[in-house]
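Lab notebook page, bench 4
Experiment: in silico fold of construct C2
Operator: M.H.
Input chain length: 275 residues
Purpose: comparison with the prior construct
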Amino acid sequence: MMNKQQVFEKTRLPGIRNIIVVASGKGGVGKSTVAAGLALSLALEGYSTGLMDADLYGPSIPVLFGLQDQKPEAREQDGKTIIEPFIRSGIKLMSIGFFIDPKQAVLWRGPLASKALKELLNETNWGNLDYLIIDTPPGTGDIHITLLQQYEIAGVIVVTTPQIVAISDVKKAIAMFCDENVGAPILGIVENMAWFTPSLHPGEKYYLFGQGGGETLSKSFHIPLLAQIPFNETICSSCDAGRLDNLFTDKGVKESFDHLLNCILYSKIGIVLNR
């Protein structure tokens, strides 16, 4: 059992003003797309932004940005390894997916996974960033605990879909971030795949995964619902093709990410981030 009096010494990554974790207790809710879309929104607004793919078992960032099979440059400097992130759409990108064979399973126990995470965070040449967005794996495991215990996290965005089965798992993630020992401020909830709107019929909405799940979570935990993000039949193909920027060609998706961005930037969430 964790000692109630235990205090963790947290690292503040030099040059990085705010670390925002994007998380969900459930896989398949589009967490990576939300993390990447938020990073893109911040970069387009002129903020220096990084995106770290901490999903060691199923990294998505290389695919979303068309960087499959790419290896970042690494060099030794003053006895330390320095890894240069890729830059796409003004975002500095790093992922464990750049270092592993995508056809091989990552068979790492917790300590090794945590070590890999810390090495990537500490050895990447992030430079000066206003925001570093960290995309985390599903669940409430070693990666989340390492981040919460060892790094200063400005806030967490929790992603869900409207489905009851998703909400059940997301509740567990919220409970972890609310823990008095290792918790971090929850900025709010994003309901992804809130409804389906065909690209040729923008006035129509089909609630394929149910309705009101994000609002239910928001009311239950008194956490703001920051955005409801719709989807259409072109989003999957755009992400698979590494053309994440095509997300914002859809008016509904763009408006949803704009609302999320405004909540982050203008303190509508009641938490003051470092400017």
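Observations: The beta strands are 16-23, 49-53, 74-77, 80-83, 86-88, 91-95, 129-135, 155-160, 186-196, 225-231. DSSP finds eight helices and ten strands in the chain.
Next step: discuss at group meeting.
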